[in-house]
Amino acid sequence: MDRYSIGEAAKKLGVSISTLRRWEKEGRLVAERTSKGHRRYRLDQLMRVESSDASKRITLGYARVSSHDQKDDLMRQKEVLQLFCAQRG
Fold this sequence. Notes:
Layout lengths: L2 E2 L1 H8 L3 H10 L5 E2 L5 E4 H12 L16 H18 L1
Antiparallel strand pairs: 1-3, 2-3
């Protein structure tokens, strides 16, 4: 299958349907329309958008505690987040 419905395309890219509609409005994607007006996205376009977005993604970690007495908890959170971020690149 080289054409995807808006729901399938959103799932494949990991974005919402409204994001795909916005991208279409902005010209980042061009949807073909069925005879009933449903959007269909070509696989090559989805791959192009996916690869351009992948280079812009970042992984961000945030840790906090509510009091100074929890400094040990904060340090553990920090270590876990650093490992997570390192695995994500």
